[in-house]
Amino acid sequence: MERLQNVTLQRGDSRIEGTTLDGALHGSARVLTGGVPVALLSYAHGELHGPATMFHPDGARSAQLNYADGKLHGKAVYYLADGTVQREAQYAHGALSGDSKTWLPDGTLLEHAVYRQGKPHGLLQRFHPNGRLAERQMFNAGKPAGPAERYAADGRPLDAEGKPVSRWQQWWRGMRGEPAAAESAPGPRYPPNS
Q: Where, residue-wise, is CATH 2.20.110.10 in the chain?
């Protein structure tokens, strides 16, 4: 059995430094471009396996990922250059699985969806930059499970042509006992309040 050996591979201004076992990357590896670290990776017998950290060109963390057998697996967090969380998602064997949330730089929730085997499954919500609900739709295995509800930035529902329903129409529908617009209060911010 071969022992771990240090290895450095260079192509242009990119370089990977790590260790090999039986000729395959094994253990920690560091990727640099122009001498600046762009990734810290974990390998097992030539496949990504374990934690991985990616970096913006200025050295700030851009992503914290986990791999199993070469595929994304577990929680993945993506960051803006200032360190603000931009997206959190769950993966299982390389496919989105579970909650996925995306935020604007100010912490306003932009999208919240649930996935199963890489496809939307359950409630998908999108929000306007002011935090109000923009769209809500249920999915089943990637297919819509009913019509989407869409809303203007002021909370009014949108009609089939994408135009806001007037307030008097909303009032009239309410008087007639028709469903009123769903509540469109601002969505949660990041980080969630405890």
A: 1-83, 95-176
pTM over 0.85: no
Q: Is the peptide bond before 191 cis (omega within 30 degrees of 0)?
A: yes
pLDDT at 71 exceeding the cut of 90: yes
Structure tokens at 18: 């790590």
Fold classification of 1-83 is: 2.20.110
d(CA 55, CA 142): 32
The tokens 């601002």 sit on which residue? Answer: 186
CATH class of 95-176: mainly beta
Predicted confidence (pLDDT) per residue in 127-155, tens digit: 999 999 999 999 999 999 999 999 999 98
DSSP the chain: -PPPEEEEEEETTEEEEEEEETTEEEEEEEEEETTEEEEEEEEETTEE-EEEEEE-TTS-EEEEEEEETTEE-EEEEEE-TTS-EEEEEEEETTEEEEEEEEE-TTSBEEEEEEEETTEE-EEEEEE-TTS-EEEEEEEETTEESSPPEEB-TTSPBB-TTSPBPPHHHHHHHHHTTPPPPPP-----BSSPP-
Torsion angles phi and psi, residue 187, rounded to 5: -80, 175
